[in-house]
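User: Hey, my collaborator sent me this sequence without any context and asked if I could get a structure. I don't really work with proteins. Can you help?
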Amino acid sequence: MDPFEQLLAERACERLIIDFVHRLDLGEPASVAELFTRDGVWRWPVGGRLIEGRDALRAYFGSRPADRLSRRVMSNILVTVASADTAEAVSYFTTYRVDGYAGGMVPAGPPVQVGHYEDTFHRVDGTWLLASRTLHLPFGGPTPRTKAPLA
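Assistant: No problem. I've predicted the 3D structure and written it out in structure-token form, which is a compact way to encode the shape of the chain:
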């Protein structure tokens, strides 16, 4: 593969990784389904959670509580392009999250999750999409409910 084309593919996949968490944290969570191939898969091996297909992904991510405030920090993003139409990536994430958010600033607490994603990507009609995302969560805890916002 031409080095410039490889760079473009890596950047497109990196952009998907970041767009995913922006949509969860700042946009419409259900819209992350559009970042997947039609038969895309999200899995969390612990507990056997497996979500397959855009409609199921839209329902799953769209079901998060309306009063949930979250921010994810992504790091150590490493994309490996396997061919002109396939790639893989590993990226680390840290999630800060509270339920019961009613506006304002809430006291900072420790992250509720620290883990990594393993992704596969396919280029479909010239557009890179997630084919699968697997969540690995070595550090996790319950989502706290927020108290009154800081003044």
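In plain terms: The mean pLDDT is 95. You can pass these tokens on to your collaborator as they are.
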